[in-house]
Prior knowledge:
Shape: globular
CATH superfamily of the largest domain: ATPase, nucleotide binding domain
Distance between the termini: 28 Å
Strand content: 15-25%
CATH topology of the largest domain: Nucleotidyltransferase, domain 5
Number of domains: 2
CATH architecture of the largest domain: 2-Layer Sandwich
Radius of gyration: 21 Å
Number of strands: 12
Helix content: 40-55%
CATH class of the largest domain: Alpha Beta
Amino acid sequence: xxxxxxxxxxxxxxxxxxxxxxxxxxxxxxxxxxxxxxxxxxxxxxxxxxxxxxxxxxxxxxxxxxxxxxxxxxxxxxxxxxxxxxxxxxxxxxxxxxxxxxxxxxxxxxxxxxxxxxxxxxxxxxxxxxxxxxxxxxxxxxxxxxxxxxxxxxxxxxxxxxxxxxxxxxxxxxxxxxxxxxxxxxxxxxxxxxxxxxxxxxxxxxxxxxxxxxxxxxxxxxxxxxxxxxxxxxxxxxxxxxxxxxxxxxxxxxxxxxxxxxxxxxxxxxxxxxxxxxxxxxxxxxxxxxxxxxxxxxxxxxxxxxxxxxxxxxxxxxxxxxxxxxxxxxxxxxxxxxxxxxxxxxxxxxxxxxxxxxxxxxxxxxxxxxxxxxxx
Length: 376
């Protein structure tokens, strides 16, 4: 089955055409500077396939499924409208996800389209980890809980680590660090997510490109009052004006910040330091959650390509058995690599993520399941 995977964001669309039986990548790429999703998807189809009828299914990344969608589902207009009800929970992601679906449906109307949710992998998190300490009836009424995101990425690198070591994923306790413009950490216990840093929305947890992560609600109320921020302005502030961008005053690109650090830019250095410190805290916390860990895994744009960030994040973690080899770390740019010192009991790995493959797997399973006759 040839599956076209679309990951539509607010500033770019990543795509990959995958032969799902052999899990072979036929073509992949990214389109930036989006004018309209219909034009972008049309361009992708021209690049990816010689004939649109070759596409047998389309898998769409959708970030937030709330508690309504706990696994991949076939997309229709009614399902898309349901997903749009959660746009306020992931305003940077869900709207472009659905815009991309509608564009692809127009151009590829005859093949099944499947929504694959970031939140699905984290459905195994227990109540003690997903509940907030608010009146329980508010959780029941408004579904206020930790959902977690970057599920396909965390799942992929955990499974890939096990594959590299020729053992089942159930043998390992892993801490997976997805570090891109959005960042999250996950405690993976024998293949299952048991805690993760993002929460009800993708705003919680680590410092990110333009999101500040953990933030005292009292400080936010104070800021709203003093700066006369209404709810839309506060939403924009939290999603687009905080994080690395807000702290540094430069931007949200870690490469630019590291370059600025080298030139002596103090606020850039401070932003990077805060970013790495918050990550180090979560790694330590998830050692406690898992009662130890076999490995810490770095992935995504920053995790795969920023040795300085990995080194700073693992600094002062020798008490947890973590020690990074400086030369191994320096060489590990966008490749699978063990960057640990030889004697370190807890391994540190870099594993490039492959979210599109996980989306293709879930898409194939959803399509095949839909084709099965219903037992009577």
